[in-house]
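Same chain as my last thread, 267 residues:
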Amino acid sequence: MYSNFIQLQKAHQSLCAHLRRSIQDTEELETALLKKTREINSLSSIALFPLKGSAVKGILKSPIKTEVMKTTHRFHHSLSPSKNLFSYLKNGVCAGIFAGFTAYKASLTTSKKYLNAGTSLSLGSADLSMDAKVVPMLNGKFDPHLELRAEAQAALAEVKAFGSIGNTFIHADAEGKVGVGVATGEAKAVINKEEISLKAEGSVAALRGEVKGSFTIFGITIEATGSGEVGALGGGVEFSSKSGEFTIGGKASLVAGLGFKIKVKYN
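reply #2:
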């Protein structure tokens, strides 16, 4: 009889200990769920009002980075000790250079758990890039040709802004820029044994703006881009020795020229 009472008492104590652990686990789970709910609510408020509350305070507290008379340059090429002669014959050799200059630039950025945003102002900026590529073979046959490309852009003033919010499953990105006194140019030449072709385009605009936004949910991305310009003039020239054609054209947008495009990508 006494042994049965001891066993019953141990079972009772074991049951009480199990109930206490269950209550503790339930309280911890409830605390974690409440914390996650507050994070989701905070994320929703930032998505609806991205320039209010703590986001603005975070941006205002971030230090402003300034740069004066900044120059940048990069040089790239495809030469490598690991490549053999056959690789060079098949893929060719390319080389290029990029150079940039900015008289004054001020930038402000902030980064949070679900938010990354920033803005910058540039005064007196210019960029130039040039690339050259020599390909000895084409479609398995010896057919050497040379490709040359050059791009240039300059602006009296330019304002850029970007922002991204969300996580790996759902996120949105947006970026935009507005330039004052913008000039751009692009040229491309191809020389081979059959023809010499040349294409060059250039434009200037008193005011030019571009915006790009995307929204991704579970691997599906919807991307929208738009551009506009005021007081713009542009022109181009094309030449081909094979077709014997020489074309000159131009465009003007004294009031406003607008472009808009939507693209959907999925994995």
